[in-house]
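Hey, sorry to bother you again with one of my protein questions. There's a protein on my desk that I can't quite get my head around. No rush at all, and the record is pasted right below.
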Amino acid sequence: HTRARARREIAVCLLVQFYKSGGVSSDTNPYLVSFLVAWANLPGNIVSAIAVDRLGRRLLLVLSLAGSGAAVFFIFAVSSSLGTVVFSCIFSGVSVIAWNVLDIVSVELFPTEKRSTAFGFLAAIGRVGAILGNTIFALV
């Protein structure tokens, strides 16, 4: 118990230190940042709707995953709140393209019975996980 608790405390301290060192300043409005990151999904959705048939699923998936990976790398490389917010928006807008392509590919690959069974199973697992997460978080 003490080792696990010490690891959690170290992880929290490192995360707080990252944000204090320039990741996100304390004067940044978290609601505005959340709004901007969510709003950044709109261009990604539009691009994915247009480009999925023009570029092909595989190429679009590769490009969007590479782009979102590069954006995550630059989130940690910048030293200002503005840079963190900008690259978070870029990550959000580019990664949604990959999710959209994966949604299309999964519909094309699997028959309806298997998709619906898997969806039901995963929804149940997600609900059990949410219940356990809230219960365990209350204990910690």
User: Anything to note?
Assistant: The radius of gyration is 19 Å. DSSP finds six helices and no strands in the chain. The CA atoms of residues 69 and 115 lie 28 Å apart.
